[in-house]
Amino acid sequence: MRHFQLPGPFEWIDIPAGPVTLEAGGYVPESAAFDVAGFTISQYPVTNAQFAAFVDDGGYDRPAWWSVTGWGFRERHGWTQPRFWGQRDYNGADCPVVGVSWFEASAFCRWLGDRTGREITLPTEQQWQRAAQGDDGREFPWGSAEPTAALCNWSREIDDTTPVTLYPDGASAYGVMDMSGNVWEWCLTGWESGIADLDSREVRLLRGGSWSSDSPISLRAAHRSAIDPNVRLAPDYRHHATVGFRVVCL
After folding, report:
1. Would you say the pTM of this structure is higher than 0.90?
2. H helices then E strands: how many in the chain?
């Protein structure tokens, strides 16, 4: 394994194999159980400081890190950094990176995998839910209690992203943090097909809710949402300041 370390905070959390039950929607016509193999997930969402390492290492200049479709968008729209990179409100070093498309998040994964000698991807939605929900089918990552300002960043209490270490009491059973609130998180899974094709132009799953979520429903560990990553709504539409991502290692 190559010696490479992202800026902190960064830790890997091992998640054991086990089942998850997905609610109906998209490629899951009815609620269904899935067996999830063991995997390792980042304890926190990817931060601005960590994404800066990708930017500084020529991440937007190397087609090798990108899918064919993603590189096409990067070229067409002239992306050289996340959408809100120069905006102070969302640029705290230990706050989650936002304003990144699904394709930028996937490129970061390829880059990090190359630098570390590991197989790194976005989580599938099954992996994400397994890390958030654990073995006891909990309603929220921390348990059954309704979300509060002490457990996660939601309902515009702060109206901005927050440091990824700020809510230890909101951690999942495995110690994975910020899985509810702060930022929605891109998943690898396609909404229509359920597969993980990097060049498929389908809607992708989002999980976890964000700092602007005003209903506990979107913060539930089993809640499924989706968004089109294909930049169809505006020349540089990269999904607001509410969407980030975390990574898994297989």
Report:
1. yes
2. 4, 10
